[in-house]
Amino acid sequence: FVLFVFEKSNQSLSLSFSAVRPRDCSDVLASGISQDGVYSVFPTHDPDGFMVYCDMSTDGGGWTVIQRREDGSVNFFRDWQAYRDGFGRTTGEHWLGLQRMYSLTRSGGYELRIDMADFDNATAFALYWDFSVGRDSVNPEADGYPLDVDQYSGTAGDSLLKHSGMQFTTKDRDQDQSENNCAAYYQGAWWYRNCHTSNLNGQYLRGGHASYVINLY
């Protein structure tokens, strides 16, 4: 899986400003840089900035990568602090961090793209025209970094809209609507409802395995 975000309204930016202080990867692209790689970005609400991986190849480029899973080398069954702050290597498997996602998307105007491939190299994608984490929150962590996502298109089918409005749940912070902790039960972390139609931070399973399912879509 790879999750990207893209700012839809960057066309009106001053190129001289975005070249010096890009808010996200769409600003990096607008400044004339078109090579995939790690860049510093400075969201409006996080002037100190941080490093992100910019995908300049997919669907026109300018995508800020917020999650990547490709080989199972990084453990995604982690606690609240890890998901808040981020983990992994920016050039490989990683989770950018809920606080950084909030900083990027709180002003609105972002879309989300999810690219998926199976072990036979079949691919699919899901695109959501509206995406944010904690957009209306004054204290996003206390509010649970709620997900806001809308308007699906793509080839993968929608498995995320039912999670919109939910708070983020980890194994040590249960904020879902199930009587159990969905993160602990499914060994992941996500914006679970009761429990999920998508679980992109769940177990990385390859090949045949014995498992279980509550809801199948």
UniProtKB/TrEMBL annotation:
Keyword Lipid metabolism belongs to the record: no
Q: Which GO terms of the cellular component aspect does the record hold?
A: extracellular space; membrane
Question: What quaternary structure, including any partners, is listed in this protein's UniProt entry?
Answer: Homotetramer; disulfide-linked.
Q: Where in the cell is it found?
A: Membrane
> Which Gene3D superfamilies does the UniProt record give?
Gamma Fibrinogen, chain A, domain 1
Per its record, how is this protein called by name? Fibrinogen C-terminal domain-containing protein
Q: Does the keyword Lipid metabolism apply?
A: no
Give start-end of the signal peptide.
none
**What are the residue boundaries of the Fibrinogen C-terminal domain, all occurrences included?**
16-217
* Record InterPro entries: Fibrinogen-like_C (IPR036056), Fibrinogen_a/b/g_C_1 (IPR014716), Fibrinogen_a/b/g_C_dom (IPR002181), Fibrinogen_C-term_domain (IPR050373), Fibrinogen_CS (IPR020837)
Q: Which domain of life is it from?
A: Eukaryota
Q: How does it sit in the membrane?
A: Single-pass type II membrane protein
Q: Which CDD domains match?
A: FReD
SMART domains (alphabetical): FBG (SM00186)
Instruction: Name the Pfam families on file.
Output: Fibrinogen_C
Q: Which UniProt keywords apply?
A: Calcium, Chitin-binding, Disulfide bond, Glycoprotein, Membrane, Metal-binding, Signal-anchor, Transmembrane, Transmembrane helix
GO MF entry, a single one: metal ion binding
Query: Which SUPFAM superfamilies does its entry note?
Result: Fibrinogen C-terminal domain-like (SSF56496)
